[in-house]
TrEMBL record:
It comes from Agromyces indicus. PANTHER family: IMIDAZOLONEPROPIONASE (PTHR42752), IMIDAZOLONEPROPIONASE-RELATED (PTHR42752:SF1). Belongs to the metallo-dependent hydrolases superfamily. HutI family. 4-imidazolone-5-propanoate binds at R98, Y156, H183, Q252, S328. It holds the Pfam family Amidohydro_1. Zn(2+) binds at H89, H91, H249, D323. This is Imidazolonepropionase. Fe(3+) binds at H89, H91, H249, D323. Keywords: Cytoplasm, Histidine metabolism, Hydrolase, Iron, Metal-binding, Zinc. Pathway: Amino-acid degradation; L-histidine degradation into L-glutamate; N-formimidoyl-L-glutamate from L-histidine: step 3/3. N-formimidoyl-L-glutamate binds at Y156, N325, G327.
Length: 411
């Protein structure tokens, strides 16, 4: 189990602005469902009450809870509380880094999917304990920046043994693990060794079987330099036949088949969506597939930012995620992604905060996170600020004071 829920009662009082993502007539902020001067109660990690501070159960009443002896009180002292961020896209199990590649890019070199292979080599060399320690460090970073729920992909192993290893290690820290054997074709799959199609058969067969016990999702990088639509479909359908949910990396480096394929397969999410045709936008708008935008990638590859405004205006559900990985986006910060989305992608602060919470939950097809209402998990970020707007208004400032997950403080 990646994380133990709190047992007992948590009472959060004095919340100046509570972003619930649960709109109601007596709340402000449209879809953000903002309640002012609010309080929240959680029992055993699940929210049981939300309302005005003045109406909050007193400590005496709290003593009648199922766990009268374990009561924790958090006084927000007028600050804002939002749902813990849901980072629905990361690649956190890897060895080495690619600082040199980043520096070269900032000097003018283009980003290419092939850079992934150098991380594959470093990851294969790392021991389980080295990868575990690295992963634990990233989890601390995520929690420290307000993220309560996060997905982790495999994809830097690219052999049966190494992909199984990465899936197993990822499952030690999250329930949201994605099998991304179809990240790129590894160097050893030369044409004589079966080439891309031979590798795809391995991914859809033995590698999927080895990873299946540890993962909830299957993903494929459908992009020039990685896998074409037919190869991606082969892997995604094999995963789906094993009961895995589908997600797709697509339309990152140019227009392509990723969005179309994702919608056709009813994927939970198609991620990147940087280069979209009108037909892609229309297909997304008529589907359940979330468009997950990853502005850290455009920041560190110098591609143009995705146009969130175009998607939102067309009625597409948008999520924001970090894509934290050593190549295209080495940030674990959802506040940074929110600031970029507001400044560069046409989102309002409210839309960006919602995309980083409820949007991420939708991309993972979860209804118990990314929202604060009775029955949802008590996953909260307490901001050192009076309002969620400050996340974009004060870029680069560490505004997350505390992060709580399942009613327990994690940062
Ligand atoms: O999401 N797009 C494919 N995979 C990663 C990049 C991985 C890498 O460059 O190491 C991404 O951007
Ligand atoms: Fe990615």
């Amino acid at each position: 189990m990646p994380h133990a829920a709190a047992s007992g009662r948590l009472l959060v009082t004095g919340i100046g602005e509570l972003v619930t993502n649960d709109p109601a007539p007596d709340r402000e902020g449209g879809p953000l469902g903002i309640l002012r001067d609010a309080a929240l109660v959680a029992d055993d990690g699940v929210i049981t009450w939300i309302g005005r501070s003045g109406d909050a159960p007193s400590l005496e009443a709290t003593a009648g809870s199922p766990h009268p002896h374990r009561i924790e009180v958090l006084d927000a002292r007028g600050r804002a509380v939002i749902p813990g961020f849901v980072d629905s896209h990361t690649h956190l199990v890897f060895g080495g880094d690619r600082a040199e590649e980043f520096a070269a890019r900032m000097a003018g070199r283009a980003y290419e999917a092939g850079g992934i292979r150098s991380t594959v080599a470093a990851t294969r060399e790392a021991t389980d304990d080295e990868l575990r320690a690295r992963l634990a460090g990233f989890v601390r970073e995520l929690h420290g920046q307000g993220t309560a729920t996060f997905e982790v992909k495999t994809g830097y192993g690219l052999s049966v043994v190494d992909e199984e290893r990465l899936a197993r290690l990822a499952a030690e820290v999250t329930d949201e693990v994605t099998f991304l054997g179809a990240h790129v074709v590894p160097a050893e799959f030369t044409e004589r060794a079966g080439g891309a199609d031979g590798y795809v058969e391995l991914v859809a067969g033995e590698m999927l079987q080895a990873c299946k016990p540890h993962v909830r999702w299957v993903d494929a990088f459908c992009e020039r330099g990685a896998f074409d639509a037919e190869q991606s479909r082969r892997v995604l359908e094999a995963g789906r036949a094993e009961g895995l949910g589908v997600r797709v990396h697509g339309n990152q480096l140019g227009e392509g088949d990723g969005v179309r394929l994702a919608v056709e397969l009813d994927a939970a999410s198609v991620d990147h969506c940087t280069y979209l045709s009108d037909a892609d936008v229309a297909a997304l708008a008529g589907s359940r597939t979330v468009a997950t935008l990853l502005p850290g990638v455009e920041f560190s590859t110098r591609h143009p930012y995705p146009d969130a405004r175009r998607l939102i205006d067309a009625g597409v559900t948008v999520a924001l995620a970090s894509d934290c990985n050593p190549g295209s986006s080495f940030t674990s910060s959802m506040p940074f992604c929110i600031a970029l989305a507001v400044r560069e992608m046409g989102m309002t602060p409210a839309e960006a905060v919602r995309a980083a919470t409820a949007g991420g939950a939708a991309a993972l097809r979860r209804t118990d996170v990314g929202v604060l209402r009775p029955g949802a998990r008590a996953d909260l970020a307490l901001l050192d600020a009076p309002s969620h707007v400050h996340l974009a208004y004060r870029p680069g400032v560490p505004l997350v004071a505390e992060t709580w997950k399942d009613g327990a403080r994690v940062a």
